[in-house]
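Example for tutorial group B:
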């Protein structure tokens, strides 16, 4: 799959801010949301295939790539910017596909405007273990070792199967210019408990009423899938074992197939937590 080289479009979302985005293909809109510090290029290897039967839109989230910054970054302010983009461009009711930060932003966006579905890649919505990880590196995240520490932390999350070329690409995203996004989003939670974070998030999750699939490269524990299905009506959790935080970058062809299957309303069989397309462990 070849990288996509196209001129970015720009959309005014109000308050002198713009969202930069790439568009390819025709048909039902699929909106791709990248992870923290990344930009639309994180989806380059997927756009060509997905655009064969869809209008694919890959955006730069605020403060990333060529999109305008925000005065302060949070998952909620970022989702509001994505919602403003959807309102401005009117792509119908798009299907949202988001990785990491993009996964939780897609989730919140689905509570704010009309979308057709959400595919959340790699972003658990219970954040207890994440809070503990951020506590250990919080001082360095705010300092001059930001890029080094971010690369080490994300490499640990991604696991050993992430291709070296993808590791090198992702390391290039973690630059000092995007440090504020990380510190604004991550550092406030180190003083909070998971219960406090969930108290803010649960009312948002309860408003989501579209097909919702979360795809992980490692298990979040036996209790996670039924919990998610109870707080987001009908949500399903699928695990591709041993693929780490970026399962779509480890097995891109499999991921493209899974997106198409999900968008054709295939939910799989068996319990809330599916392993592989048919519910079989892989």
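The residue assignment follows.
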């Amino acid at each position: 799959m070849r990288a996509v080289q196209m001129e970015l479009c720009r959309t005014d979302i109000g308050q002198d801010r713009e969202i930069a985005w790439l568009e390819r293909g025709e048909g039902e809109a699929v909106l791709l949301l990248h992870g923290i510090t990344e930009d639309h290029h994180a989806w380059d290897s997927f756009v060509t295939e997905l655009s064969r039967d869809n209008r694919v839109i890959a955006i730069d989230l605020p403060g990333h790539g060529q999109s305008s910054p925000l005065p302060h970054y949070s998952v909620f302010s970022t989702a509001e910017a994505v919602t403003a983009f959807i309102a401005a461009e009117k792509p119908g009711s798009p299907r949202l596909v988001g990785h990491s930060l993009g996964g939780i932003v897609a989730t919140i966006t689905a509570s704010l405007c009309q979308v057709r579905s959400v595919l959340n890649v790699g972003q658990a919505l219970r954040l207890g273990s994440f809070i503990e990880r951020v506590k250990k590196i919080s001082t360095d995240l705010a300092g001059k070792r930001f890029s080094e520490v971010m690369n080490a932390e994300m490499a640990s999350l991604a696991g050993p199967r992430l291709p070296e070329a993808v590791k090198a690409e992702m390391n290039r995203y973690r630059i000092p210019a995007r440090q504020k996004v990380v510190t604004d989003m991550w550092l406030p939670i180190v003083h909070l408990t998971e219960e406090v974070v969930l108290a803010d998030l649960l009312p948002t999750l309860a408003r989501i009423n579209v097909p919702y699939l979360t795809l992980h490269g490692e298990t979040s524990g036996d209790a996670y899938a039924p919990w998610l299905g109870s707080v987001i009506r009908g949500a399903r959790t699928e695990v591709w074992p041993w693929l780490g935080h970026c399962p779509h970058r480890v097995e891109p062809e499999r991921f493209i197939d899974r997106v198409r299957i999900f968008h054709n309303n295939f939910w799989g069989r068996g319990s809330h937590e599916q392993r592989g397309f048919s519910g079989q462990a892989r």
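The radius of gyration is 17 Å. Compare this with the pattern of hydrophobic and polar residues in the output above.
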